[in-house]
Amino acid sequence: MLKIDRRLIVHFDWALLALVLLILVCGVATVLSATYTPERLVSAVVVRQLVWAALGLLATLVAVSFDYRRLESWAYVIYAGALLLLLLVPVLGAVGGGSRRWLTFGPVSIQPSEFMKLALVVALARWLHRLAGDQPLPLAAAVVPAVLFAPAGWLVLKQPDLGTALVLGLSSASLILLAGFRIRYVALTVAVIAPALPYLWAHLKPYQKQRLVMFLDPMADPLGAGYHVIQSEIAIGSGQWWGKGFLHGTQSRLNFLPEQHTDFIFSVFAEEWGFIGALALLALYLALLLRCFLVASRAKDNFGTLLAFGVAATIFWQVLINLGMATGSLPVVGITLPFFSYGGSSLLALMIGVGLLINVSMRRYTF
Amino acid sequence: MIPLAQRETPLALRRRLAGFLAFAVLGLCALLGRLWLLQVIQGEEKRLLSENNRIRLHRVHATRGTVLDRNGQVLVDSRPSFDAVLVPEDSSNLALTIENLAQLLGQGSADTNAVLQQAKGRPAFQEIVVKRDVDWNDLIAIETHQLDLPGVSLAITPRRSYPLGGSLAHLLGYVGEVSEKEMAADPQYRMGDLIGKTGLERGWEKQLRGVNGGQQIEVDAVGRKLRVLREVEEVPGNTVTLTVDLALQQATEQALGDRDGAIVALDPNTGEILSYVNHPSYDPNVFAHGISAQQWRGFTQDAHHPLTNRAVQGQYPPGSTFKIVMAVAALEEGLVNPFTTINCGGGVQFGGHFFRCWKKGGHGGVNLHEALVQSCDVFFYQLAQRMSVDTIARYARAFGLGLPTGIALEHEKAGTIPDTAWKRRRFGQPWYAGETLSVAIGQGYVTATPLQMANLIATMATGVRYRPYFVKHVATLDGDVLEETEPERVQVLKLRETTLKQVRDALRDVVQSERGTGKKARLKRVEAAGKTGTSQVVKLGEVRLKAQQIPWQQRDHAWFVAYAPVEKPEIAVAAVVEHADGGGGAIAAPAVREVLETYFRLREQRSGRLYAQDRSAADRPL
What we know:
A: 367 residues, mainly alpha, 3-stranded antiparallel β-sheet, 15 helices, 4% strand, B: 622 residues
């Protein structure tokens, strides 16, 4: 089906793939630890995660199989498709944990918001790559990106999924900044948004407000929202230098930790592997990010740079927010730890993103 | 090869890329710092916590605010109650523990299942209330059998207490466990919390509830408390002071006795509710304990409807008390003057129907004054023939009839003031002139609530209609007043002085004159003014029957509305007695007299006491 250029195989970014696979393996192991019972070591959750990982690898391969520059012409179609899926969620979506985020196709449930992260990056890269350069961009250059972000951000926020909406916003903002948007406009934007905060506050769900209040004053609700963070901190802290060992985390196993295999998976990992383990994991993420930035800076065109950077920024923000929340440094919003948390859509979307990164990386020498 | 310029990413772009990278490195370093703090610096401490393993989060319920009467007497309070609670996680064999507990407390197995059911689908560390308000014996039993009851402990929670029982129940309302819907609306509430469900408890929920506190408690493997790690003090609810006078309230209750009905007394100069009686009533303590299905059925199926807040929900035909509105309308419209006399021969023939006066032999020649004093129906039938129903309705509404008074109680009813538009809307039919005759004596479609009638007579007394209210002020425990209710003028009657004077004179003679229908309301030292009413529940045939000959549900309602003193009104009262053994003059007027009597006696006593206090203060040596 494809005429494979020998140079593509030579330039395949094995390092990038290897880093991702390493993190993925750690993640599956930790999901296993978070969900195992003495009667059944490998839970159904782990099996499902493995299936998703396999699908993800397949998706990665598909994502490298074509020249990423063709995305330039598909960008808005992809964006429109993702938006359509998001629009279907309130209509056909399944409710889980109080919010409507999933679309169900037979045995498979997908979360369109996860794919929107990628679609938005592609669309923004498509729009911004002609503008990006040495000249600072005028204020007007942010209008189209804002228009692209707004419906997606709004739909996700309404699900409600504050975390994903936040990542969408931060990735978009990162891309605009990278493209050369003047930093002083950022200050202006902040000044404009600040008065709207009370309005936004009024539209937050009660539990979201509570989490924010709790973050500012953890003892405001020691029994509710504050509980998760307190337990998470205890789990992480009790890992100390070397951790309690694989499958030996007590805090998480005793169900003290809610959402221990999704949003709070890092607490399980840090409890079992200690500071050394956490350090290693952070090093892996840092290496991954360095690699991503390298790909971005070596891409042969602006589109490639922005595309690679967009994926990298998404990964970075999710890592930062997820870990910040688990360690009690940031308010609790629902967000997965890339390649680590349980969750099919998240993994699949990120693996496609990795595919795109490799795609950009290996085609830097071709026409 | 491709030209360099095309392949190279613009310099600025790469510089910004480097900036982002620096930011990312910085972010990860910050996280690392945080992890260092948690795992290395605080690691030992966290390890201890995780090994001793359990931290319980214990809610400390805020004590609900006290409710006082206007003189500082306690109307509603909170008392400590011991609840048996269970943390499922601390019990290795949950079913056995519950079984043991059930045996100790003597509860049936059904309850055991209910508790198990409750435990499902909830985090195992969350405590479940197994039994509320356990008595002394149970308390000791639980304490002594602690070893057989892992995970079970006693929690002290404040419980709502209504020391007066059913007194004022319809105004105070009651509290109950918060519902799913209420929890969704306000995240401050948790399962098992109490919330005001009706009346004052509901309307002033925010002021009364206070702020719950919490404790982070370290417990051992069987759930025994080791130490409190962190604590947030609860803030008790605010104190609400009512306008109600407890002594007057109790006298009013006595005045109504065990007859069904309602009496409302208010201050016509402000709209403050002074007493508020509904009979029958219910004991709100029953709700505070958690009402059983059987008790609830008992309430709802009772033919006397104890849960009905008659004073604002009971819509009764006002009977002859409505003649006050008719008299004002006739004078203002210039249809009568003090000398207009009509002959009452015991009834009026109109449209093929004979409209009777209550006095079989008729009143003879009566003017407006006498017609009010003796409550002559014929006089008002004649007025009705000269007045359109829409005019009557206009005056009735000026007195606040047909509209909710706006008192802060839920489900207040508006009553009905019919007019031509109303009838078209309601029945799709035109208004018939004959129907106006019924309206003129407060029958037919006219209905009003007792509170509206109290408001009506208060408005008549002062010329100003206030919104009735019952919360005087809300204050913190330290006595700092947070909010104070200001009297709210809803309407100032724009009537001629002569109109007011003539009607008021007549109302005074209703009580003060020997011919007056309300003479049984006469007081010893204070002049009162009022109006009687007897309203038919069902249209009876031509034959007059004695009350005792009629089935209870079909007997008339007796009304009396009054204010006093005549010269400078201080109190206005409306009383309705359902299915009374006699008319307003015989049944309702004496009840109102008791209320007024008590009011003036209390006032005298209190001013005397104040005087005595002043004296003693003055007499104190310097």
